[in-house]
Write a structure and sequence with these properties.
Largest sheet: 7 strands, antiparallel
Oligomer: single chain
Radius of gyration: 28 Å
CATH superfamily of one domain: Dbl homology (DH) domain
Structural class: alpha+beta
Distance between the termini: 56 Å
Number of strands: 16
CATH topology of one domain: Dbl Homology Domain, Chain A
Helix content: 40-55%
Length: 593
């Protein structure tokens, strides 16, 4: 049975929320069809959202009776155009925004930046595509349609490297019925950047004014903490993007778009774009909270009423909340394509080249922050396994395990030596003692504040402060109290690793200060709560249902029944499976003991 026929025969299963947003979400020109209620242009009808939940239900029932499909994203215009092109024999290409790793032989795996030939887009969420000799299903929300569809396929991968083209390939080429120049290709990319930014601003405005504003009026339904969880810092992103799009408009040459010089705009705002890190890291929490709320009908009715009153396109709230995550992924791809069609002699060339590297760095920073946030769950779990813990939680001051290993600690006044396990986090060094019988059990003993310490390398021989012979030793000296801690490693290379780890700890602290990285109190409390629940039950740590599942919630019955095995978020590597105590510690540290 062909895929087209299968889609006609088997209806899609509807879900209240889907994280699979249509690829063309930030393409202009979509037409909305609202049959009931009719809302005139201008200010919102303030009486539309009343305290009576029943009115929201009536509004939703009117909407549902008009044959709209709530929770099934997509305006349909772009999808229809794609299928028409395919049926006419045209080749349609898309490029991957994120990695799609799968164990299912019916699915098409790819990496971010790969170019995919779209062979069937009948289904809104899952398309059929081909890469070289491999074919299979892939999630439509993981790709971005290529701007210049008529460009020869063999030349296209050059852009993914962000490199320059040879002069021999920069001249006039034949595309379809006629010819176009490299300037025309650049015009296409510039137009896409400008148009998608304008449409993106519209989506952000709709979220802030259509949802957040209305939610704040309903203190009986939403707390401020809930709104912060659902919407994150999207209002900050909206303010940033409004300034950014104005800067782009100033650089946009309407008469000759290919002469536009937009690279400087990305360079100017590269630091401000780092606010996306907070949003992307919070987004899985937003999905969880939305999923919880929409189990209650009045929230479903309320969110749909908000969408209708704001005259928003037929996409549910969680689909709109995914757009910032997608947007920050698209910038490097758009800039790579722009660089490909920018001649080295163009006044914008150097700025576009620098902007591409800058936006790649922003994406890397977001990934790094995501990795750090994932680590706090492991750190919380680690602490929950330490016996006799005293004082504040590790997460109060730390979010990264730099290094760990065994050392001999020598203490005053009798120069008593003790074999201990040490865990170096940012800002603190935690000391633990192994159980005499069960060596995998640790007992908390003490901790040292690294912010007050300086590291002193000690030569082999007799130490004057402790009046003993030492080997492979170093000291931690407190600048304020003059307190001195002496440590000895078993081997010279172990000592060097510790000295390097202390350097890395200071470097990490400085970097966090420069980039403004921090863990929110809510995230810390949630991590400790999860670890506490797991510890009391005595069961292995359960990993929260992957964020990837939210992206895959709507799936056609004829498609593969197993979900892809990787959590896909930004350009991150696959998550490792849960491991035992010591494996968790080793994976958190950059060195092997």
């Amino acid at each position: 049975i062909t895929s087209a026929v299968a889609f006609d025969i088997l209806p899609l299963k509807l879900h209240p929320f889907s994280q699979s947003t249509p690829t063309g979400l930030d393409c202009v020109g979509w037409k909305r069809r609202i049959s009931s209620p009719v809302i005139t242009d201008g200010a919102l009808d303030k009486t539309a959202l009343t305290d009576d939940v029943g009115s929201e239900e009536d509004l939703y029932e009117d909407f549902r009776s008009s044959n709209h499909r709530y929770g099934h994203p997509g305006g349909g215009g772009e999808q229809l155009a794609i299928n028409e092109l395919i049926s006419d024999g045209s080749v349609v290409y898309a490029e991957a925004l994120w990695d799609h790793v799968t164990m299912d032989d019916q699915e098409l795996g790819f990496k971010a930046g790969d170019v995919i030939e779209v062979m069937d887009a009948t289904n809104k969420e899952w398309w059929w595509g081909r890469i070289l000799d491999s074919e299979g299903w892939f999630p439509a929300s993981f790709v971005r349609l290529r701007v210049n569809q008529d460009e020869p396929m063999e030349d296209y991968p050059l852009k993914l490297e962000g490199g320059k083209e040879d002069d021999s390939s920069s001249g006039t080429r034949r595309f379809g019925m006629g010819q176009t120049t490299k300037d025309q290709m650049r015009t296409n990319v510039i137009n896409e950047i400008i148009s998608t930014e304008r449409d993106y601003i519209k989506h952000l405005k709709d979220i802030c004014e259509g949802y957040i504003k209305q939610c704040r009026k309903r203190a009986d339904m939403f707390t401020e903490e809930q709104l912060k969880t659902i919407f994150g810092n999207i209002e900050d992103i909206y303010r940033c993007q409004k300034k950014f799009v104005k800067a782009l408009e100033k650089k946009f040459n309407k008469d000759h778009p290919h002469l536009s010089e937009v690279g400087s705009c990305f360079l100017e705002y590269q630091t401000e774009f780092q606010i996306y890190s907070e949003y992307c890291n919070n987004h899985p929490n937003a999905c969880m909270e939305l999923s919880r709320l929409t189990k209650v009908n009045k929230y479903v009715y309320f969110f749909e009423a908000c969408r209708l009153l704001q005259k928003m396109i037929d996409i549910s709230l969680d689909g709109f909340l995914l757009t910032p995550v997608q947007k920050i992924c698209k910038y490097p791809l758009q800039l790579a394509e722009l660089l490909k069609y920018t001649n080295p002699q163009h006044r914008d060339f150097k700025d576009v080249e620098a902007a591409l590297n800058a936006m790649k760095n922003v994406a890397r920073l977001i990934n790094e922050r995501k990795r750090r946030l994932e680590n706090i769950d492991k750190i919380a779990q680690w602490q929950s396994l330490i016996e006799d813990w005293e004082g504040e939680d590790v997460l109060v001051r730390s979010s990264e395990l730099i290094y760990s290993g065994e050392l001999t600690k020598i203490s005053h006044p009798q120069a008593k030596s003790q074999q201990r396990m040490f865990f170096l986090f940012d800002h603190q060094l935690v000391c633990c003692k192994k159980d005499l019988l069960r060596r995998d059990i640790l007992y908390y003993k003490s901790r040292i504040n690294m912010d007050d310490m300086e590291i002193l390398d000690v030569e082999d021989g007799k130490d004057k402060d402790f009046n003993i012979n030492v080997k492979n030793a170093f000291k931690l000296h407190c600048r304020d109290t003059e307190e001195v801690h002496l440590f000895c490693a078993k081997k010279p290379e172990q000592k060097q690793r510790w000295l390097k780890a202390f350097e890395n700890e200071r470097r990490q602290v400085q970097l966090d200060q420069e980039t403004g990285f921090s863990i929110t109190e809510v995230q810390k409390k949630q991590a400790m709560l999860n670890a506490s629940k797991q510890h009391h039950t005595g069961k292995p740590k359960a990993v929260t249902r992957p964020y990837y599942d939210f992206l895959m919630r709507q799936k056609h019955p004829t498609l593969p029944t197993t979900l892809p095995q990787q959590q896909v978020f930004m350009l991150a590597e696959p998550k490792r499976k849960p491991s035992n105590f010591w494996q968790n510690i080793s994976r958190l540290t950059p060195f092997r003991k």
